[in-house]
Please model this.
Amino acid sequence: MADANWYVVHTYSGYENKVKANIEKTIENRHLEEEILEVRVPLQDVVEVKNGAKKTVQKKMFPGYVLINMVMNDDTWYVVRNTRGVTGFVGPGSKPVPLSEAEMKPLGIKTENVSVDFEEGDTIAVVAGVWKDTVGMVQRMDYNKQTATINVELFGRETPVEISFAEIRKMS
Model:
C-alpha cells in the first residue's frame, strides 16, 4: 500500500466544516478508512476584545482550506474532488502536491515517531533553551507536540513548564 500524505483542499469560504463532514461521511459509506485517514480544519486560539472583555475564541487558520491525510489514487482523488463545496486540490493544474515536513511542522502535525528514553515520573535535566541547567520531574508528555511538562521552582513555587523533547535528557 502506498504512503499517506497530507494534502490541501480548497473549499468555498465558510464551507470548511461542511466539507469535512461530507468527506467523513463518504469515507464511512464507501469504506475508505484505509485510504483517507484524517480530515482536519486547522484552528487557532485568538483573543478578542468585545465591550472591554477579553474572550478566547477559535478561528480557522486557513479560511477556505481543509487538510486531508490520504493515500492519493484515482478513487480517493475522485471522492474528495467531487465532494460538494470542494473547488479543488492545491497544486499545479489538477495534480495535488503533498505538504512537506517543513510546511506541516507549524500546523502541529508530526509525521515522524519520536522515541525518548524518559517517561512520566523520571527526573530529567534541561540541556538547552531558557531553562538550561534546570532539573525537574516529568509530569506529562505530549508526543504530538513533542514536549514534556516538568515542574521547576520559580519564585519559591513549583511551576509547570513545557519543554521540547530535544532540550532535555534523562538523569542517570
